Amino acid sequence: MAKGTGINPASARRAVARKLAMQALYRWQINSSPWQDVLSEFASDEDMRKADRGYFNKLVTDICGGSEALDGALAAWMDRKPTELDPVVQINDILHVDRAPQIYVYGEVQRPGVSRLERGMTVMQALAQSGGLTQRGTERGLRIHRRDASGAVKIIQPNMNDLVERDDVIYVRESLF
Questions:
Q1: Residues 75 and 116 in one domain
Q2: pLDDT tens across 42-55, in order?
Q3: What's the first-to-final CA gap in the chain, in angstroms?
Q4: For 83-95, what is each residue's pLDDT tens digit?
Q5: Distance between CA atoms of residues 107 and 171, nearest Å
């Protein structure tokens, strides 16, 4: 035992190894890299010098190597597959959030510009989101410019209840009379 602390140094090194092993296993599960890479990454961790390296390596190797057997043993107590579990977000994690789908409305509307596309949005709702038609605008002059799978733009004459799709460009023409 260390002098005056009451803590066995071997126990303290194993406790640090367990903490690092939990972090390594979490990293391995969230990232899709091989577990051997995680072992190498943690070998240079600042806390590793205070840890029982052999115990750390054994924990990570045994758990990663036997993960399918562990998942099978735990399956009876789980309501979903391990691959369907949500990851836990921690401090310093980096998340990528895709931008919201957009549509573009221009021509004879009150507030032309970019708008966020809502699920199930119709042409009428898109126009309402843009403040509605101006006095010169006409519903008969509506056009949607939409890219198909090949990237070619096709022009559609929509009905007010047609659904709008991501990156649609809605043009409202001026009424002639």
A1: no
A2: 888 888 889 999 99
A3: 96
A4: 777 767 777 877 7
A5: 5
Task: Please report the DSSP string for the chain in residue order.
Answer: --TTT---HHHHHHHHHHHHHHHHHHHHHHS-S-HHHHHHHHHT-GGGGGS-HHHHHHHHHHHHHTHHHHHHHHGGG-SS-GGGSPPPP-TT-----PPPPEEEEEESBSS-EEEEPPTT-BHHHHHHHTT-B-TTEEEEEEEEEEE-TTS-EEEE---TTSBP-TT-EEEEEEP--
Determine the Cα–Cα distance for residues 82 and 7; give it in Å rounded to an integer: 37
Q: Kindly state whether residues 13 and 45 are assigned to the same domain.
A: yes
- Rounded CA Rg of the chain: 29
Q: Could you tell me the strand order of the sheet in which 113-116 lies?
A: 113-116, 102-107, 169-174, 137-147, 153-156
Residue 115 sits in which domain range? 102-174
Helices 9-30 and 53-65 meet at what angle, rounded to 10?
A: 40
Q: Looking at residues 29-52, what average pLDDT do you find?
A: 82
Q: Is the pTM of this model over 0.90?
A: no
Are residues 141 and 107 both part of a single domain? yes
- Residue 78 sits in the same domain as residue 109: no
Tally the domains of the chain. 2
